[in-house]
Amino acid sequence: MQEYKLFINGEWTESGTGETFDDINPATLELIGKIHKASDEDVKSAIDSAQEAFDAWSSTPAPQRAKILFSAARMLEERKEELSRILTTEMGKVLKEARGDVQEAIDIAYYAAGEGRRLFGETTPSELPDKFCMTLRRPIGVVGLITPWNFPIAIPAWKIMPALVAGNTLVLKPASDTPIMSIELVKILAEAGLPKGVLNLVMGEGGIVGSAIVHSKKIRAISFTGSLETGKQILGEAAKDMKRVSLELGGKNPIIVMDDANLDLAIDGIIWGAFGTTGQRCTAASRVIVHEKILSSLQKKLIERARKFRLGNGLLGNTDVGPVINSSQLQKIAKYVEIGKNEGARLELGGKAVKPLPGYFFEPTIFTDVSPDMRIAREEIFGPVVSLLSAGSLDEAILIANSVEYGLSSSIYTENLKNAFKAIEKIEAGITYINASTIGAEIHLPFGGVKSTGNGTREAGTTAIEEFTELKTVYIDYSGKLQKAQIDIE
Question: C or N: which end of the chain has fewer Cβ atoms within 10 Å?
């Protein structure tokens, strides 16, 4: 059985603990690797390595840093199919979605590399004569990256690529359920020419590895994607050292379907949003708010479509829905199904773990007669469970959409332009789709949400560099005399 080591200061290193943990295929429960478990001292070594590498890396011209990212992007392209199959084996999502995951990593690598010649600042006239004013972007320093299991190469790449091109050095902690994809990404970046110490990789328990990253005074910024509760803890601890923190913490995303919608198109979007990646996306469509005039017909068609899904190993060509990530998640989903039934929602489809299959499979599940105050309509389940809610008008639908603490993604299906623009204006979310599902972000646009979804930061797109840079304002006075802004203008 292959063992996977830590990556510290450009070397693959055994853990100081001598301990490993198992990486399991969630579709077959087969052991696919043993992962070295980092100790607190291992994390400190990784952080020290990143700190030592910072001066040289941040002093390297950004276009030169970008060349390494361009090389990595080409390597990712060449290995796309191989990486996709590894990803499906490790995480479980069906192969076509795994290819999309890898493609996101390719896309952000190219996009961030392009920013190597676009680390733009601003120039503006001074209010005083013979004085020049501008802004520029500087790297923050050593950055800690903590990533989840559901997009095991895309999300690490979303963070790594812009952070590197901006001149930061990094310590990455991937999710313990899917570390191999981060290992493969780090291998590619090292092969592309990334200097020693610039990117370090440590695996292990959040309470040890994640905590050591969060509490280190040498870490100047943290980028975290994961649960709301963990995000709150990180934000509170990081505030003690005034660290920069970027959080993406999940969602309870609505699709509104109006009575004038293209019903078949809407159902396509609901299916993709609710059951794509087995519902294990922060952008998953877990609530469908349907105009009461079409609720009955939509419900019937949706159940007919979902009933036909084939569950199984994502590497098999006939599989529609793969497994959930682990036993704990399987139990959590089953618990929420019982909560929904006890609250009075009607279970129309699914609701059970699939026993004949060896892995962690849960049936696509549809609840009807759901009210906005039910827990299944308010709390993130992170599984193949969707709730149908009824609304008598667009105003009521938007009120229901906004009634939860999250605000990541949203969608409306309508043929009425006024409805579409009202939804754009009134829905409390960082992303709104018109006549498309809640999933499918493109990397050249900012990604993130409002309310408890995060703390106001955005990843990717035009804001990718902002997350990992400090803004410096520069004044150059060539007047040869002391000038005082505000005081000297009369």
Answer: C
